Amino acid sequence: MNQLADVNSIAELEVDADKLIVAFASSDGEMVNQHFGSSLGFHVYAIDGTTATPLAAKSFGKEQRDGNDDKLKPKLAWLTGCDMVYCGSVGGTATNELIKLGAHPVIVKGGPDIEEIIAELQQEITGTLSPLLERIFKQKTAKDNSRFAEMADEEWAE
């Protein structure tokens, strides 16, 4: 996988609040074809109504499937900053951890193409937002505004 942005976490990337940051659990970068916990890779895009910009991609090693929750930690740490994570399936522990991070897991079946999902999201962004997207954008705007309030409170020296 080519490293687009080599980051320890997606949260390190500067992305406008009007863009959705979406991760796809994928072995090939073409389709969502991986279970969250055992996913060999994630591809992350910044998506708005007209563009989808690849931000980062990361490969993860093959994990032993023994209910070992430690295998989730590196994935969760790297995905911090994502708004949505599309995967073939996701366990309860991972779902709870993703939600704590502010990333909404979305389960899709049948290995849909990433491009198709992006097109559907763009259509929704330019049309009527689902309650989920509405909530995500409200949270992003609130977070963005609080950051500016913090900056305004800082002492400025010239």
Report on the architecture of this protein.
The protein is α/β, with parallel strands linked by helices. The protein has one domain (10-153): Dinitrogenase iron-molybdenum cofactor biosynthesis domain (Nucleotidyltransferase, domain 5, 2-Layer Sandwich). Helix content is 34%, strand content 18%. The chain has 4 helices and 5 strands. It has helices at 72-79, 92-101, 114-126, 131-153, and strands at 20-25, 41-47, 52-59, 84-87, 104-107. The protein has a 5-stranded mixed sheet with strand order 3-2-1-4-5, with helices on both faces. Strand 2 and strand 3 form a beta hairpin. It is globular and about 55 Å long. The protein starts with 19 loop residues before the first strand and ends in a 5-residue tail after the last helix. 28% of the residues are buried. The mean pLDDT is 88.
Shape from CA axes? globular
Q: How many angstroms does the end-to-end distance come to?
A: 45 Å
Mean pLDDT: 88
In CATH's first tier, which class applies?
Answer: Alpha Beta
CATH architecture: 2-Layer Sandwich
In CATH, the topology is named Nucleotidyltransferase, domain 5
**At the fourth CATH level, what is the homologous superfamily?**
Dinitrogenase iron-molybdenum cofactor biosynthesis domain
Relative strand content: 15-25%
Question: How do the helices and strands line up, and which of them pair or pack?
Answer:
Layout lengths: L19 E6 L15 E7 L4 E8 L12 H8 L4 E4 L4 H10 L2 E4 L6 H13 L4 H23 L5
Parallel strand pairs: 1-4, 4-5
Antiparallel strand pairs: 1-2, 2-3
